[in-house]
Fold this sequence. Notes:
CATH architecture of the largest domain: 3-Layer(aba) Sandwich
Radius of gyration: 19 Å
Strand content: 15-25%
Number of strands: 10
CATH class of the largest domain: Alpha Beta
Largest sheet: 5 strands, mixed
Oligomer: single chain
Number of domains: 2
Distance between the termini: 47 Å
Amino acid sequence: MGNVVNVIKASGDIEPFSDRKVISSLLRAGAPLDLAQKIISEIKPHLYQNIPSFEVYNLVMRILKKQQQDLAARYNLKKALMELGPTGYPFEKYMAEVLKAQKHEVSINQIVAGKCVSHEIDIIAKNDSRFMIECKFHNQLGGRTDIKVALYTYARFLDIKDKGFDQPWLITNTKVTQEVKTYALCVGMKLTSWDNPEGESLREMIDKTGLYPITASTTLTLAEKQDLIEKNIVFYRDYTSIKTK
């Protein structure tokens, strides 16, 4: 395709389709370079001007499902996190397990009496430091965590910091605005979002631990996923190990 094809992102922003961007996302999910390049060549004839980003994603997923189910599950991570939902398996419980795998001592949903009022803390995590963690969950593509959440998190920390907390930590399954990044850096708040900070983003944390959620499966229905979650089978690797027994 000689002409530039624009892609409409879930946020409404428009950007040119990028071979490099799709290949990079496939490589991060564990695809070999030759497969990533093959996928690019197969989806290009199906692109059209102002194609929604979810259609590009669906084109890639259709090929991955035929090639490698495990790879498709890893590529499906962003959507899978959104499918966890506040009613199936809360995001803070999932993140607590990811942090445990990274050698943190964790507790969830603890009530801490602050200087002014009491607070229910999503996660308290401890390794070299003791963190007050606020988990911000979004279940729609294109959403971003904005400055109000960062301000709220830091204000809560200030009220309980004398209870032995060293640092506030905001974790979200989406991207954050530049204002949030600037504020977090200014006040010394640890920040983990879908793609930030480089090397320690949420996506990379999950990749390193291998704790992909069961919702990443591309073969199970949503009802089947929820049934497994209710049976406390939350992680994809637990499901695949059961299947192979």
